[in-house]
Structure formats: C-alpha cells, structure tokens
Amino acid sequence: MLPGENVLSSETYDYVILGAGSAGCVLANRLSENGRYSVAVVEGGGKDSWIWFHIPVGYLFAIGNPRADWMFRTEDEAGLNGRSLAYPRGKVIGGCSAINAMVYMRGQAADYDGWRQMGLPGWGWDDVLPAFKKQEDHFLGASELHGAGGEWKVNEPRTSWEILDAFIDASEDAGIPRTSDFNSGNNEGCGYFQVNQQNGRRWSAARGFLKPVLGRANLTLFTEGLVDRLVFEGKRATGAVIRHNGRQRQIKATRSVIMSTGAVATPAILERSGVGDGERLKAMGVEPVHHLPGVGENLQDHLQMRLIFKVSGVKTMNTEYQSIAKRVGMGLNYVLFRRGALTMAPSQLGAFTQSSSEFETPNLQYHIQPLSLDKFGDPLHTFDAFTVSVCNLRPSSRGSIHARSTDPEEAPVIAPNYLSAPEDRRVAVDAIRLSRRIVATPALQKFAPEEYLPGAQIESDDDLAKAAGDIGTTIFHPVGTAKMGADSDPMAVTDETLRVRGVEGLRVVDASVMPNITSGNTNSPTMMIAEKASAMILAES
What we know:
Layout: E1 11-18, H1 22-32, E2 39-42, H2 59-62, E3 72-73, E4 86-87, H3 109-117, H4 125-135, E5 136-138, E6 152-154, H5 162-173, E7 189-192, E8 197-198, E9 201-202, H6 205-210, E10 219-222, E11 225-233, E12 236-244, E13 247-259, H7 262-272, E14 275-276, H8 278-283, E15 290-291, E16 303-310, H9 317-322, H10 324-337, E17 349-353, E18 364-369, E19 385-392, E20 400-402, E21 413-415, H11 422-439, H12 442-445, E22 450-453, H13 461-471, E23 472-474, E24 506-508, H14 523-540
Parallel strand pairs: 1-2, 1-13, 2-10, 5-6, 13-24, 14-15
Antiparallel strand pairs: 3-4, 7-17, 8-9, 11-12, 12-13, 16-19, 16-22, 16-23, 17-18, 18-19, 20-21
Helix pairs in contact: 1-14, 4-14, 11-13
C-alpha cells in the first residue's frame, strides 16, 4: 500500500475481468449477456473520448503518447546491435485495438492445427473458425468462411495508391499470386488488407463489444484502475487489489478472476501475486503461492525489417504531406466523404510468401506503405519513397517478460531476444534478398527505385544479418508469456481451457496464452481466444 492510501471496502461480483482490451471487451459482452452473472471489468487506462482513437490515422498521435500508450521499452537487444525499442500497448478501453494497424487477420489454418497437435484439443482450425465467424460483420456477407451480423466490423480500405498497385504487379512477377482475402486459412498472396473500420472510422473492440452493453445492470466498468496484485485464499484466486482514484480497492470474484491484461502485463501481475518461478519471486520479495516456472517465458514477437526505396514519377505520402493545400484537401475528403489519407491504416497492402522452398506455408508477411521515415514518430522524409516491411511469421527466437519489482507502476523487464536463433538470422537475410527481387521487377523499375535502407552496397550474408539488426523493429505482436500447454509441458502456464495451472478460480484470456505465434497480425486471433473462453466459462456455469 502506498503511504496515505486508504483501502475501500471490497465489492463482490461473480466474474472479475482484469483488462478491457481486445479480449476483455469480448469477455465483458459475453459473460454479462444472459443477465445471470454480475461482471466487473477493470481497465488501467481511460475512456476513448479522444478524437484520435477514432480517426484511423490517429495511431500516429496515439502511439508514443502517454495518454494512449503504456510507453513500455525493451531492454537493450544484442540481436538489434544494442538497440532498445519502444513497445507500445494500448492504455484505454479497447486496448491495442484502439491504437493498432486495424488489419483484420486470422493467421493460417496450420497455426491452429499445430496448437491442437501440441495436445490442446479444441484449438484446431475447424474449432476456431466458428468463433471468428460469430464475431464478424464482414462486408462480403455470410459465407462458408465469413460471418455477418457480428460485432467485429470488417471492411475494405477506403484509399489506394499507384505505388501499391504496382507492388501487387511486381509481386505477381516474382511468383506471389494476387489475393482478395487473406483469411481463408491459406494467406498466401498479395493484396490490400481488410480493415476493422466502419464508414472510415476505426472500429475498436470497445466500440464493437463493450460500449454498446455498458447499460446492462449486471456490468460494471472501472477505468484508470491499475491492477496491483491478485488476492488468494490458499491457492484459490478470490479477487484483485487495484489502485483507483488514489486509493487501493479490492474487487472480489465469487466464480472466477479472468486476466486479460495482455502479454506484457499478465506475467508481471502473476509474479507480483506469487505465481511464477519460486526463486525469482523470493528474490523480488514475494512469497510464492504456486511455483510456475513458465510465467513470463516463451515471449514471441514479429520483428519487421523496414526496407525503404526512393522512387520518382509516382505519388507517395512523403511529398503529398509537405503541401499544406493537399493536407487541407485530405482533411476535407475525410470530413465530407470519410475517404482518403486519414482513413489509412499504418499499412494498406500486404503479402504472404515463403522465404525459401523449405517452408510449406508462407513464413513471411509484408506490410507495404506509400511513405517512409527513419523511425516511428519521426517526420516523413521529404523525398518520394515507399517502405517494404517484412517479418518472419514464425520466429524461433524466444524472449521473456518479468516483473521488475512489486511496484505495479514500474514497467516490466521486456527482453524479446530478437534474432538470437541462427535460423531467424537466415530467414532475415533471405527476406531482404526476396524484397530486392520484387522491387527489381519491371512493374516497379519504371519508378527508378533506389534502395535507401539498408543500402544496395550491403550484399554479403553476414552484412545483411547485421543490417537486419539495424533496421529491425517490433510490429507490436507480443504473445506467449502465459502459454497454453499439455499436462506434460513443464513450462505451460495455462491448460487448454485457459485455467492457470496449480491454482483455482483464475484464468488467463489474452495473447499471452498462445503457445506459438499466429502467422499474421495477432489482434483478431486474441479476440477469437476470448470468444472461445467465454463459451467455455458459460458452459461450466
């Protein structure tokens, strides 16, 4: 307890959901739907009343802003040649869905079938597809692969660029087919991303799942409630202590505490509460409740390498944005028609392919942007250019996230361990070479592309591997730090029903439970996990 703080009398609910991010919003909606159970949702951030949470291009103002972002950073990374990276996480209802790329992506059928083959029944592609479909309100309507009428809006982008259209042609010349839908279970191909937007506005999990049901009498939302620790009676979780309005408040759960605080915060909260590696906890001054060595381990993330090519004879956002008149026009286009540059996601065009013939399914994802900058948060370059961002979808490198101390306001230790595995460095080199081959096709050569980063003079495998560390940055997909696993897995934190192993009354429902990262953007898969978890919880009740 902080000096001068008062502990308020505790309040009791059937279910206490910690975190109103992408997963927490789904859980809040589903668990309160039948009216039989009282549900409390505790969000560490605030409400989404800021305009930039709703205009798609607002991510530029939200990421790196303490109003919207928890402002985490990684440790210095050897694989990134000693660099530390900003590690954005959404600090608002809706969580990362309020500041992310808005890309609707499920991953590959093989991802989920792989989970099932790891001894996790109920998590194969055929098992998860109905959950994806239930949530969807897809612009193409209901079909064998897509749903209609759900809370999660999926629409076409409302802008296009000649340089992006040319990249589709170039990819086809390089052997990557065109595709109009990355979400069939096989995401190979190149095309425009489908986005979580509606009429040119961001569609967050809060907007789709939480805000429409806040009028339910059995649902209570606490904002700006920082989770201090879980409360245990023996080995049963009975609630949580939060810091709210300058005081400590205890929220009790009669049925279950559900952690949806994300792959960064979840392991740190578990450790502060006495669940984790026993020796680590004791060193931090925490009395162990249950020894669970996998807490905080198995961190996986997609590391994107941002290649930049200068071009001429084609419009890009770099020089368009330099013109005040054109910026005014962009604003008017948005206000009048909800179209144009202000509807742009961080990346509009995507591609999935193999880095080499040894991979049966695509192991690379491209995010292509008609703009360039030195690093996120910096101004756009003043020359015309486009960015070819490519990531290894299934990295072998594993990192960790652990609590730094018992103070919930102290950021955790984030060590992704990027490019530590030799195979990841090899895939990075192959990805850069493939990117160069795509840009060398006639469809893009007509714009006289000149490699700005990492630089055409870098050619050897060793130099390219070092360059990958220089230009690599997170694409904001941390998962796995409280992974699901079979009984035989000593590092499993949760079982296939998402219960925390060795304790009672506690589940984790967020991206941290993924045993292996999905092959693409991770937001919608996290919401699918919450959909399935809700069904399991209600079935037990």
